[in-house]
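**Sequence, structure tokens**
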Amino acid sequence: MHAMMTPRFSCQGVHPARRTSFVSSMVLLGVDEHWTTRSNNRRSISSQRRKRNGKNAISSSNSSSNNNSSNNGEDDDRIVNEEEERYKMETKSRANKLRAKVIKQYLGAMGEKTNDCFDKEDLVERLTRAWMAKSQNSVRVPLRRVAGVPGNPRAGYCLVTLNVKTEDEDGERFCDFLIDSGATVALVSPELRKMMGKFAEDGAALKGLGAMGETIRQKVVIKNPSLGAVEIPELDAVVTDLRSTGLPPVVGGLLGLDFLKRFEVEFDFDKEIIAFHPKGSAITGVCDVSELIKIRLKTHPTGLQLAPISLNNCAPFDAIIDMGSLFSVINWKASERAGVTKDSPDLDSSGVISNDVTGAQMGLAIGKFNLRVLGEGGNSDLAHDLESTYKGAACVGDLPAFETLGAKNEPFATIEST
């Protein structure tokens, strides 16, 4: 087994105006495809926050009294009820806009019969009920971020909370994990590994790849972690000291593609909600992707997901989608293809100092680029592309990991996707 862990950067000297930020309020990650759009209406359910009250959470930074917890629980119940009613109205409205033929297709995909529906109103009611029922299998949690960049409200790592079994007196704890699409397996800190005790089984050592090169890590199998009401039988992870990454101590680990591929994951940055949908939610219409830009992904032999990008309207090349990095990194081949060389006035050679999960450091330059992620329409179809909101933001350097991934002599990059 080979674990991939692309850059987890602590950075020095990055000005907010230099950071890449895509104009996207919602992102849906699936196994084969990735969609993103500028607007989206989804419900937000805060049930997991209710569960966190009164539980011992190693990720908690603030404590509250029992009265506050009780009030918070009542507030959360009210919010959930309001959101459920609003979601039902939105769902029915969405169903009502569809043609009868499309409604029947969605119902058929969910195994629902339609031969006893005699008009469109009957079809709309049935589809609304079916979507509502299916949506109960989704887990929606607050989208929380840490280690952001001042001046950019969307900057920062996305966190999700898992309930893990422990050997201490509580028997379980809520633990914050960073979502990292640039890793193929989960990472856990040594502290969390010790806390889980018998509820994590040690395995053989395996090779990993950080931004600065290959590493050897201890594999563990986490037994029965849960995300809300969804219990995961087991989750492979590697034990890694995360202190050198600059992540706050509340983060107990990272969740990579091995975790994400179990769901269709929706990130709503406007409503600050992450939704984990069962597979098939998009094709059945439970998760609305009608207004999204569709981007065809490739799967690297390591399992990492690659998106086609263009810099300064140059010929497209592949880039790793990396939610575990605060900024995008391109190699010198990509920079030169975009017309930015080492002596270019658009390049700041002082750049940043980066370090990966191993603590290894490397200096990177900062180049000014117009970065586009290319939609299925192709390089010439600007209406179906995702553009950065301002020029700049890409760090430039030949990370050792790029060569290991087979991109020594060709343009390559990692792009942060928040």
In short: DSSP finds eight helices and 27 strands in the chain. The mean pLDDT is 77. The longest helix spans residues 66-96.
